[in-house]
Amino acid sequence: MGKPRKAKKSKKSKRWTTKEMAEWLTDRLPCFRTACTESNSTPWLTGIYQEFLDVFPCAEPTPTEIQEASGDIEKVKNRIKTARKKQIYWWFWNRRMPGSKSTKKDKNLLPLAQKKSRPPQPYQVYMSLYTARVMPLLHQQYDEYKVSVAEGQEPKKWWPFVISETKRMLDQESEEVKQEVNDYREMLAKGEESLDEFLRKVEAGEAVSAHEQAVVMQQ
Q1: Burial of residue 129 (number of CB atoms within 10 Å: 0-12, 13-18, 19+)
Q2: How far apart are CA 18 and CA 148, in angstroms?
Q3: Which of 24, 81, 195, 199 makes a 20 to 30 Å CA pair with 60?
Q4: What b/e sequence results for 34-62 when a residue is b if at least 16 CB atoms lie within 10 Å of its CB, and e otherwise?
Q5: What is this structure's pTM?
């Protein structure tokens, strides 16, 4: 009688994100979900790719990778960057719906991150509530900005531009709008409302002020 075979251990896929990366991505998940509801996920992701790479640069090509590419270092770098963008895309896409399996898994694997979870920044809440009005203006302003940049100077990246301009736009908003943004942030900070509930209201139109609804109807 032969020896009983040992059960093979299941290999768990290694996560590509570090704890810091996961927290960074999770902080931006509310904005992505809102962009999806506005059919605006593609330009949003285009900006987030570069912002992520600015904070978490890709590893330098290994000698083996360079050799396999016949010494073309730029080709290898572009390949690595493209692979990272795909990972970012699928990270967000798999979590686009509140309560998804990936979202629940993140809560189990990152208990410390959940305890330290912060409400979105004011500009993030503002962008979420007023996406239909804010995003077209940002694209127009960025196009105008790139044209105005002096020859020889490198223009600011898309997402850093979006952050600074959104903050500026919020600063110029009415006190009513600012109060609305602060109210949602306070509710999230106190735990009176979860991010999922906040997003549900945005999707249902319940989180949008009467002023914004009037603006959208006039467009």
Answers
A1: buried
A2: 38
A3: 24
A4: bbbbeebbeebbebbbebbbeeeeeeebe
A5: 0.47
